[in-house]
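Worked Example 4.2. Consider the chain below.
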Amino acid sequence: MIDRISIEKRFKEDVVAKIDERKFLGLDNETVQHSEMFMFAAAIGIHKGIRTPLNAKLGFIQATAIRPEQMSAIFSLMVEEMRKVNTEEKISDIETAFNIIQEYANTGFIEMSKWMKETKDNDKIWDLINEMDDMYEEYFGDE
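Applying the procedure from the previous section yields the following structure tokens:
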């Protein structure tokens, strides 16, 4: 049985270290748990709609450290992905669930790496806030 969620080894050595050093977007280890950073990266990947397989896995979060609401989000995502390919019979397969979320997070870490190279921290925060405002307007602007 899988006992931890993994990330690409290169991201642990590069992106996560830089996040901690720069306190990028407040995602550093002093501010949030690694599970929250991981879920943020996964949300970015989900938003982009891209799953990127991992090449060199490195254990990042123990399964026991994942909070119930995070586990619920992981399994909800898995159900949605299974519906796309009619494989709902694997509904309780935690390895499948972890694989899906890892691939989305991998995409997210790729994006975060680009962000750290291209923008200042405060600029990226404002970019994300503006994007949220636009999405809010899109969904609720006519009410």
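The first strand starts at residue 4 and ends at 8. The CA atoms of residues 24 and 66 lie 22 Å apart. Compare this with Example 4.1 before moving on.
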